[in-house]
């Protein structure tokens, strides 16, 4: 096989790869989010449904029956918006309406809302039962990634 | 006063009410079922909508397995009248329900999907409509419909009754009341009806029609009454004329019976009454019958008059009868019945007598009462012609008196006249008054005519001889005067001696002169048998 032939084969691949990369870059132009817990938490992994059930108030504890405290980004933050979009495909308004419905009669409670995004690592570090979502580039060693949205 | 139920407008109203009520009663079940199904449908839709509106929250409750929330939703649903029971079944958990589920078939079941994952079912919501409530509501509505229909019927019936009463019955009653005063036999009541109704509708037309009819009827009745009165007056007058007439008036039926007779006619006969046959009252029955028959068969205006002889108390009388065919409308239509004949009769006995006297005087010699020469010739001619027709013999005697002139000269004309009178009577004795003819031909000349069927002359000769003897017999004029005369007779016989009277008389005259020449007091039968 000649170099020329290699090049001829490689070139379309390169083009396609570049295209896909650009697409991915566009999709992630927001950011890549991951769900994390205190690094001391025995849970290693959660699936999307389990994350959903915890964040939407169906369950108040981890699958291993350990109580869970989900933490939310403050309202109107881009991270929160994106998280719910990816989790239940709903915007923040809908999520607020969902919780409003349950305000008086429901047993379920909405996740605890952090004052700001910067507070979340602290809240996570302080509480073993805490569960939060953060952009992947803000993951610290204190955190353990238990779920990440499929690329 | 009629009972209320007999009044037209009440009956119309009752009829309308009955019809509408019947319609209501018939349609009520339909309305009921229609309302029921419609209401049920509506309610089902509402329940559906209720269920739909509760679905989202129920789904959330099921997703969260939040029984309090579920209970709250169920309670909320059940608190609605239309819902008898509701329940939420949470997958892999329990069922929260409330109220009663009467008929499961009606229950609305809504699957509750995961609020965030559409493909996953987290439970079911079941809502049962409240059938008895829906039914009761439907019944209420149906009842209301039926009720309003009935109310409408009642109002309609009342309005129609009022309208009919106002517009129809009331004017009709007025009209009837006014009309009841009109009586056909009292003209004063037959006036136009005025009830103040001016509308040009059927009632107005009816009133107009009644008034026109009444007016016409009244006019007709008045005319008829006037006509009747006039007819009655006329009839009275005519009856008076009929009754009081001096002439006898009678009406003959088709079979010639006396149908009607007036007193005058009755008085003309001895004993007649209506229904008697007319013809047999007279001497010549056949003449009367023939005349009447002829009149009936001839033209309808035929008139005939007859002088008819009849007997009254053994005395001959005469009536002048005027017959006229009576033409009547009624009879013209039924000609098979024959026509009536009117007869007007006058007693003409006196006139007839006078007429006979006059004729007698004209035809007879005033002295001897024998026929005079003029009428004698006429009678002889008739006798001759009838004898010739019947092939009989006609005998004519010319008689001349002998020695009469001396009597006249001696005793005067009075005695002569007396002699002539006596001689005339003697001659007359030998002849038949009716058939034979005796004539004073001239001063002392006489002619006698007779008819015989005998062929020989024996009887004739005998008669002549006797006649001569009678003439020779002396005549006593008075106690002091007695005369004797004689006669010469010339005899001719037809048809042997001729067939005309003139020829016969001439021959008889000639024969008589032959007797005179031979010496009188003889007779000679003329011509072929000249010899005695």
The helix-strand sequence of chain B is HHEEEEHHEEHHEEHEHHEHHEEHEEEHE
Q: What is the H/E string of chain A?
A: HEHEHHEHEE
Tally of structural domains of chain A: 2
Spatial arrangement of strands, main beta sheet of chain B: 6-5-9-8-7
CA radius of gyration of chain A is: 20 Å
CATH topology of the largest domain in chain A: D-Maltodextrin-Binding Protein, domain 2
CATH architecture classification name of the largest domain in chain A: 3-Layer(aba) Sandwich
**Largest sheet of chain A, if any?**
5 strands, mixed
Count of DSSP helices of chain A?
A: 5
CATH superfamily of the largest domain in chain B: Reverse transcriptase/Diguanylate cyclase domain
- Write the CATH architecture name of the largest domain in chain B: 2-Layer Sandwich
What does this structure look like?
Chain A has 151 residues and is of the alpha/beta class. Chain A has helices at residues 3-27, 48-55, 78-88, 92-101, 120-126; strands spanning 33-38, 69-72, 112-113, 130-135, 143-148. Chain A has 5 helices and 5 strands. Chain A is globular, with a radius of gyration of 20 Å. Chain A starts with a helix and ends with a strand. Chain B is of the alpha+beta class and 532 residues long. Chain B folds into 3 domains: 4-136, 2-Layer Sandwich (Beta-Lactamase), CATH 3.30.450; 245-355, 2-Layer Sandwich (Beta-Lactamase); 365-529, Reverse transcriptase/Diguanylate cyclase domain (Alpha-Beta Plaits, 2-Layer Sandwich). In chain B, 52% of the residues lie in helices and 20% in strands. Chain B contains 13 helices and 16 strands. Chain B has a 5-stranded antiparallel β-sheet with strand order 6-5-9-8-7, sandwiched between helices. In chain B, strands 11-12-10-15-16 form a 5-stranded mixed β-sheet, sandwiched between helices. The mean pLDDT of chain B is 84. Classes of the chains: A alpha/beta (151), B alpha+beta (532). The interface between A and B is medium-sized, with 16 and 14 residues.
